[in-house]
Input
Amino acid sequence: MEQQSVDSILNTFFTFSCVGKQTPTRARYLRVALQLRRYLEAEGADSLRDEDAALLELERSLEPEAAFARLFGAEDLAYALSGFLEPRWLLPDLQDRRTQVALTPRLIQWLCNSCLLDSRRHLPAIRSARAAAARARKGPALGRGAGGSAGSDGTGSTGGAGGQSG
Output
């Protein structure tokens, strides 16, 4: 598997995703991209192994801006993605939220199709992201407002640290 930074991966994915789209759709995609980057910087460490989380803390002490996106790659992104669809990270606008829920499994599929993620080796991350998208599609979160974090911190973006083999 080719190693690229999360930053490079997201730039490429969202650039390709925006090609041929109408301006409102491109704007929604870019809002999702920005929210994903916020999420990864805030909670991406939750899906990392202990030694990688320590490395991230060290990197943040040197240069805090976009440390997760600079330091990690496709595997770490894949294990973090399910948490991006938790209610507290869903965008407040309904159309943006629907786009967020739709783009997340597309990103996972694109990682596999682009040979950035081994679909056999990282099947737990793939299944977790797809299941999170399915839950977000049918759950009450698609109709919710911006608040939703109270009492939901404990589950984080697990499915990553324990299932990641690497």
